[in-house]
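Bump. Still looking for Transcription regulator C-alpha cells.
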Amino acid sequence: MREFVFTVEYERGADEVMDLFIENPDLHSKTMAIHATSESMWRLDRLTGPTEALEAFDEVIEQATRCNGVLGMCGAPVVEWEYEVLSETPNGRIVYSCREEGDGIQSIPHVAAKHIGDGLLMQAERRGAQNQWRLLISDDDTVSEIYEEVKDSLSDGLSLSVQRISEPECWLEESVSADGLPPEQQAALEAAVEFGYYETPRQHTVQEISEELDIPNSTLQYRLTRAEAWLARQFVTGTLGTEVEDRVDPEQLEASA
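Sorry for the wait, here they are.
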C-alpha cells in the first residue's frame, strides 16, 4: 500500500468555516472516521480550540449555505446534508455529518471511493488555511486519477498541492504507546501522577517525591523533563504540520498515469 497525502489550501473568504480556521490558528479539526459510497458520505470530526472559536463554529455551521471542508466538501453547493454535535466541551466538539452526493462537484471522500472502491481508508485534518488528506492506495494510477479529479473540482479560492506518495507513515493508533519511553522515565511519570504532581493545586513537589522514591531530586527532575518532552512529541506526531512548500511536482503524478 502507498500513502497519498495532499492538501487543499483556502484563500480567506472562499469558505465560511475555513475562515474560522484562518482567523483562529489554535482551532484544529481531525477526523475520527470517514466513510463514502456512490450515494453518500458520512464522517466524525473532532474539533479542538479556544471556546470563542468553537462558539463561532456553532453559529456558522447552523447557517452554512455550502457544505464546507469540515463536512468533507470542496466548496460545493448544498445538496442534502445533516450534522449533529455529539459531544461538546468548552474546548472541543465531536461532530457527525452526512451528505448525499448529487451532480456536479463531489466530496473528496466520494471521489476517493469512486476510484479506490471497497476498502477505502482515509484521514483528514484541518488547521490554518490547510485541509490535509491522507489516503491509503494500492497503485499509482489511482493516485493520478484522484489528483486530477480533485484538482478539476476545486472552486475559486482553493488550490491543491501534493506532499508525498510514499510508504504509509501516519496510520498508527492515536493512543500513546509507552514502547519508546525508557522504563525509568515511565516510572517517574507514574510516580508523579500517583503523588499528585500534576494536580491543581499540586499535592507534592519534585523534591518531596524524590525523597519518597529515595532518588536524587535532580535525577527525578531530569527523568520527568525527558518524559514530558517525549509525550509532547507523541502528541503532535501525525498532526497537520506539512509545509505547503513541500510539494510533489504534479508532472510526477501525470507521468505515473
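The chain is about 35% helix and 30% strand.

Edit: fixed formatting.
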